[in-house]
Design brief:
The protein is mainly β. Helix content is 5%, strand content 45%. The strands form 4 sheets. It has a 9-stranded antiparallel beta sheet with strand order 6-7-8-9-23-19-18-13-16, with no helix packed on it. Strands 5, 11, 12, 14, 15, 17, 20 and 21 form an 8-stranded antiparallel beta sheet that branches. It binds 6-O-phosphono-beta-D-glucopyranose (BG6).
Length: 279
């Protein structure tokens, strides 16, 4: 079943449910902000104080960072993480494949508004498969006459019972750029979170496993060899207006990305798909 819904302020989303799972996707940003398998706890973290406002990214779920990840390379006045998460997308189709699986397709095309921020013509397609396994696939098509380079991320916020008991497996001996110290370092063993973490892991070719208190989440990627791990921890969390002070305890971002050396250059008509498969 698919229902079209609105918050009181007019912020639109669709709610999809089938025999496997239930999901909510906002039209702004094609932003998946809720995902729950039948009989299980929500997979994605959503801030209790998130804004659901036009032009403001939702804090939680899976924001789409595109066509650049993080700060713009040369102009810091441009929006952090690009503009795709703040623009209104078009809902193309909801395909109820069978009782257990639904595919939602949303599209964003270049417009006068996007060309002011980024001077290339493009088509973006997001396919979300709501099933026992969650699949999120973002396809970029270059519709311009010039080549362009993109960095991007499926900025997934995972809900965890308690960050103190969480670890991520699959990054051992991987090098990462530490965005806090601006140094390149190497991961040794599993990743535990006991302070602010903001890292871009490079050349990641293995699936990752998030071990939480009473569940494990597997994250596989296609079209990606970089992973961002982010937790703002105490001080940063306290400065964020759309996160409660203790919110850092119940979330961890593990973002399937195309960042740093994993940027993708697309020639005219070329396509690239970044996919996260989460189970
Ligand atoms: C992460 C970045 O992906 O997103 C962090 O690595 C950033 O540096 C975080 O703070 C949140 O970004 P924003 O723009 O949603 O507040």
């Amino acid at each position: 079943m698919t229902e079209y819904k609105k918050f009181e302020n007019g912020f639109e989303y669709i709610e999809v449910s089938n025999k496997s799972a239930r999901a909510k996707i906002a039209l702004q940003g094609a932003h998946l902000f809720h995902y729950e398998c039948v009989g299980k706890k929500p997979l994605l973290w959503l801030s209790e104080t998130s804004f659901f406002k036009a032009g403001k990214a939702i804090r939680g779920g899976v924001p789409i960072c595109w066509p650049w990840f993080g700060e713009h390379k040369t102009d810091s006045s441009l929006p952090q993480h690009g503009f795709a998460r703040n623009f209104l997308w078009e809902l193309l189709e909801v395909n109820e494949t069978n009782e257990y699986s639904t595919e939602v397709r949303l599209q964003l095309k270049s417009s006068a508004e996007s060309l002011q921020l980024w001077s290339y013509r493009f088509e973006l397609l997001l396919r979300v498969t709501v099933a026992q396994t969650l699949t999120i696939a973002l396809t970029t098509k270059n519709c311009d006459k010039k080549a362009f380079e993109i960095t991007s991320a499926l900025h997934s916020y995972f809900a965890v019972a308690n960050i103190d008991n969480v670890y991520v497996e699959g990054l051992d001996t991987t090098t990462y750029f530490d965005a806090l110290t601006k140094e390149n370092k190497m991961q040794r063993g599993n990743l535990y979170i006991s302070k602010e973490v903001d890292r871009i892991y490079q050349k990641v070719h293995n699936p990752l496993t998030l071990h939480d208190q009473d569940r494990t989440v597997h994250i596989c990627a296609e079209g990606s060899s970089s992973v961002v791990v982010w937790n703002p921890w105490i001080d940063k969390c306290a400065t964020m207006s759309d996160m409660k002070d203790d919110a850092y305890k119940t979330m961890l971002c593990i973002e399937t990305a195309n960042a740093l050396d994993d940027a993708r250059m697309l020639t005219p008509d070329e396509e690239h798909t970044l996919t996260a498969i989460i189970s």
